[in-house]
Specification:
single chain, mainly alpha
Length: about 150
């Protein structure tokens, strides 16, 4: 089993901790299968955003065209919307992990998510370092947008 570098159980919101535990309970091949399952679960964009690609930020660190947009509502709850092509299941899977793992969290909780979360879910031997950097960039861009929304509020 891989090292759980950098992230303690206490540091993670419940949803991300559960996802992490689910991955770490599996062997390498099963982890890849689970990542593909997450890829299939990435939610479609809400109707209000489908015709507004200008709102989305490109995650340039991803090899595939991945775009994200963050909303922070009146209750300070973060809503993450991500598009990723079906032809990029690894990236799409991690985008889905983030969308599901951050659902319902406040801006402070999202900003507290450890930047090294992608390295702790047991995929460091299964996916390339370039893909892991893309995954980390998804977290970084999400946090950056949350911070901008908090500053503007």
């Amino acid at each position: 089993m891989e090292q759980n570098r950098g992230v303690s159980e206490i540091d993670l919101p419940e949803q991300l901790r559960e996802i992490r535990e689910e991955f770490l309970a599996l062997d390498q091949n099963e982890r890849l299968q689970l990542l593909l399952e997450f890829a299939n679960e990435l939610p479609e964009l809400p109707e209000r955003y489908r015709d507004h690609p200008d709102l989305f930020e490109r995650v340039a660190e991803c090899q595939s065209p991945v775009y994200l947009f963050v909303e922070v509502d009146e209750a300070d709850v973060v809503h993450l919307f991500v598009t990723a092509p079906r032809e990029a299941p690894t990236t799409r899977g991690f985008a889905s992990i983030l969308v599901q793992g951050l659902a319902g969290l406040t801006s402070a909780e999202v900003l507290a998510v450890p930047d090294d979360y992608p390295q702790t879910i047991g995929l460091t031997r299964a996916v390339s370092p370039l893909r892991l950097r893309g995954m980390a960039a998804l977290i970084g861009r999400t946090k950056h947008q949350v911070q901008l929304k908090r500053t503007a509020a």
